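> forwarded from #structure-qc
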């Protein structure tokens, strides 16, 4: 690679460097590719390493780059759309919902969940754990709480444990008629268990999407999904999945 000197510009030097780096990411690097080390990049662009770090940190905040422990700085995949608008209402576990079942236990839910489900605080519910993966990376983890009354025909013999039991709970849930669902989104911080699963440090920003599924006039299931904030974006409505690329020569798709 040749040396690319930065022209004198009124904006902060690291900000202009961020734009130049973004263009290079679009034209020279593939998703998941590891960037050269800081010394090589600083030499290429003729800047101090402190300036380079500021630009890399900004690109990481924007979701263009990811710093992976033991790997280095890699090009991030496109942000995954998280639909929160008025699209079609479906039960979790349908063929195209993008989630993979991991496990299922019968456990006592948190007090707030028990209140939302209108179950007794000591009444165990099915807790289905699922994950969402894109480009080989886990970007979201979900806890789906399902009262036993919502899946009365579930057979422990047919699905004793693990992912098989999770699929069985989802399958039985889909036998019911879904009347409505509502969803809320809030910005939160990753707890220790979420951080481990999402390969983030505890306290990293996450999006928490809570979805309530209603059947026969009551809450039949409650989903609490935690998304990596640096890999996801909110979409609204049935046609909300619009992406604006960073590079000046690339168009919206």
């Amino acid at each position: 690679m040749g040396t690319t000197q930065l022209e004198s510009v009124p904006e902060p030097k690291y900000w202009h460097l961020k734009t130049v780096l973004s263009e290079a990411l679009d034209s020279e690097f593939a998703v998941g590719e590891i960037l050269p080390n800081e010394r090589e990049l600083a030499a290429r662009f003729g800047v101090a390493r402190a300036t380079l770090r500021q630009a890399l940190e900004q690109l990481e905040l924007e979701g263009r780059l990811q710093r992976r422990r033991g790997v280095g700085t890699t090009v991030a995949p496109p942000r995954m759309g998280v639909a929160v608008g008025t699209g079609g209402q479906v039960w979790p576990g349908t063929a195209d919902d993008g989630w993979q079942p991991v496990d299922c236990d019968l456990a006592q839910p948190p007090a707030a969940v028990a209140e939302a489900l209108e179950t007794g605080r000591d009444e165990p519910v099915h807790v289905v754990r699922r994950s969402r993966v894109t480009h080989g990376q886990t970007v979201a983890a979900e806890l789906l709480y399902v009262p036993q009354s919502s899946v009365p025909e579930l057979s422990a013999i047919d699905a004793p444990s693990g992912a098989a039991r999770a699929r069985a709970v989802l399958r039985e849930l889909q036998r019911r008629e879904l009347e409505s669902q509502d969803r809320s989104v809030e910005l939160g911080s990753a707890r220790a268990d979420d951080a481990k699963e999402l390969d983030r440090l505890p306290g990293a920003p996450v999006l928490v999407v809570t979805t309530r599924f209603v059947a026969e006039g009551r809450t039949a299931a409650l989903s609490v999904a935690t998304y990596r904030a640096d890999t996801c974006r909110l979409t609204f409505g049935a046609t909300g999945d619009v992406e604006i690329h960073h590079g000046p020569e690339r168009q919206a798709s």
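QC bot note: Confidence is low (pLDDT under 50) at residues 240-253. The longest strand covers residues 205-215.
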